[in-house]
């Protein structure tokens, strides 16, 4: 049997302001020095990801894009474990100078928290 796909599909992205606002308005939170993760049950069948990586917090485009790539890749690898929730990842100042390993460990901790908080 073929392995389940682990692609990051366009349907797995939060795109519209109204989708982000819904998560901000009614969400569960998980925070540390690098990220604030907000989750809300979506009622859909797959987890969806939205990124909020502010220039005033992280800095230039190179730093922001590196963090976005790491978050997307971590989400892609863990999506099969996550419940059907909408997730917004806000970068915090600790992520600015953190190396890749610290960011990946932080995200793995957050994904485990999401699974615990949103388990059916």
UniProtKB/TrEMBL annotation:
Keyword RNA-binding tagged: yes
EC number(s) stated in the UniProt entry for this protein: 3.1.26.5
Single GO term (MF): ribonuclease P activity
Catalytic reaction(s) noted: Endonucleolytic cleavage of RNA, removing 5'-extranucleotides from tRNA precursor
InterPro entries cross-referenced by the UniProt entry: Ribosomal_Su5_D2-typ_SF, Ribsml_uS5_D2-typ_fold_subgr, RNase_P, RNase_P_CS
EC class of the enzyme, as a word: hydrolase
Keywords: Endonuclease, Hydrolase, Nuclease, RNA-binding, tRNA processing
Functional description taken from the UniProt entry: RNaseP catalyzes the removal of the 5'-leader sequence from pre-tRNA to produce the mature 5'-terminus. It can also cleave other RNA substrates such as 4.5S RNA. The protein component plays an auxiliary but essential role in vivo by binding to the 5'-leader sequence and broadening the substrate specificity of the ribozyme.
Assembly and oligomerization: Consists of a catalytic RNA component (M1 or rnpB) and a protein subunit.
Family listed: Belongs to the RnpA family.
Listed name of the protein: Ribonuclease P protein component
Organism of this sequence: Steroidobacter flavus
Annotated gene: rnpA
């Amino acid at each position: 049997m073929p392995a389940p796909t682990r692609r990051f599909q366009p349907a797995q992205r939060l795109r519209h302001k109204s989708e982000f606002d819904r998560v901000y308005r009614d969400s569960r939170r998980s925070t540390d020095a690098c990220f604030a993760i907000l989750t809300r049950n979506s009622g859909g069948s797959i987890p969806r990801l939205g990124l909020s990586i502010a220039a005033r917090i992280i800095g230039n485009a190179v730093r922001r894009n590196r963090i976005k790539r790491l978050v997307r890749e971590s989400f892609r690898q863990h999506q099969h474990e996550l419940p059907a929730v909408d997730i917004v990842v806000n970068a915090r100042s600790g992520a600015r100078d953190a190396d890749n390993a610290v960011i990946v460990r932080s995200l793995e901790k957050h994904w485990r928290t999401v699974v615990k908080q949103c388990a059916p």
